[in-house]
Amino acid sequence: MQGELTNAYKAQILVQALPYIQKYYNKIVVIKYGGNAMTDDNLKNAVMSDIALLSLVGVKVVLVHGGGPEITGMLTRLGIETKFINGLRYTDEETAKIVQMTLAGKTNKDLVSLLQRNKGRALGLCGLDGGMLKAKKLEGDVDLGYVGEITHVDVAPIVDSLKDGYIPVIATIAGDDEGNVYNINADTAAAKIAAELGAENIILMTDIRGLLRDRNDESSLIASVNVSETPYLIKQGIISGGMIPKAQCCVEAVRRGVKSAAIIDGRIPHSILIEILSDEGIGTMFVG
Question: CB-based burial of residue 232 (10 Å sphere; 0-12 exposed, 13-18 middle, 19+ buried)?
Fold first, then answer.
């Protein structure tokens, strides 16, 4: 009897998910992956399993990843000091080489391998491939070295991969016409890629629940935000610190045609499926 109840419950879950599967069928969803979900092996496997499942039911998933902890770990092993300025990694010429090696090499291929172990068809790419991401040196009050801002996105390699049934896994490094290679913020890259693809949705995985009215109270989660409200929320301090650039990426994506953008808690197992395949979702959604 217990088995029958369990099977009936499973069937009910599938029935409830069906409208969302239909909504996202053949649509593009860009997922920016990072944070604790990237360093915890169990969470990492759950995320890759979710992405493989979405791909198998017809959702065109594009995975954009960072890799800060692995870069820091590699620099430490090589005896190179890690230096941050205003929360951004200072990237000198030697560090830029390590970033390229780690992100486009080990981190990217580890994710491809894990996706394929979860029955997903994955293809590793980086911003240098096919000139996908062009960049220039990020200018600001301080010199961050080889940290760049994207000047052009050519989504042809991504579109071709999706057409062939692959999950593109993209490392966020970019180049310029002089052969310089730049470290690119993964949230920014994901937002620009989603906009150029005309994605249905972009999901940024973080280490907090989403936007909180009271940062000390996770029950104060703001489930939905209109992009026009964002400046007010920043002024009020509800969006602050590291959440400001993430929120601004969501705003940019929505204003450039992406249907919705969400900041979700990557620490929660299967948070991607909860966000996409349920009515209540999870985290904070930005809409136009």
Answer: exposed
Backbone angles phi, psi at 282, to 5 degrees: -155, 150
* DSSP state, residue 106: I
Residue 108 near residue 65 (C-beta atoms within 8 A): yes
Question: Would you give the DSSP letter of residue 121?
Answer: -
Task: Compute the distance between CA of residue 204 and CA of residue 34 in angstroms, rounded to an integer.
Answer: 8
Strands 224-226 and 60-65 come out as: unpaired
As a whole number of angstroms, the distance between CA 284 and CA 88 comes to 24
d(CA 28, CA 232): 30
Segment (H or E) for 153 = strand 148-153
Return d(Cα 186, Cα 34) in angstroms, integer. Answer: 9
DSSP reduced 3-state for 28: strand
* Six token digits for residue 276: 């996409």
* CB 212, CB 218: distance < 8 Å: yes
Task: Give dist(CA 73, CA 101) in Å, integer.
Answer: 13
**Contact status, residue 183 vs residue 148, Cβ threshold 8 Å:** yes
Task: From 58, 83, 65, 103, select the one nearest 200 (Cα to Cα).
Answer: 58
Whether the model pTM is above 0.85: yes
Handedness of CA 181, 103, 76, 244 (dihedral sign): positive
How far apart CA 98 and CA 101 sit, in angstroms, is 5
pLDDT digits (tens, 9 = 90+) for 210-236: 888 877 777 788 888 899 999 988 888
H-type helices in 78-147, by residue range? 93-100, 108-117
pLDDT digits (tens, 9 = 90+) for 75-121: 889 888 888 876 678 888 888 899 999 999 999 999 999 999 999 99
H or E segment and range at residue 167? strand 167-171
Q: Is the Cα dihedral 22, 26, 32, 35 positive or negative?
A: positive
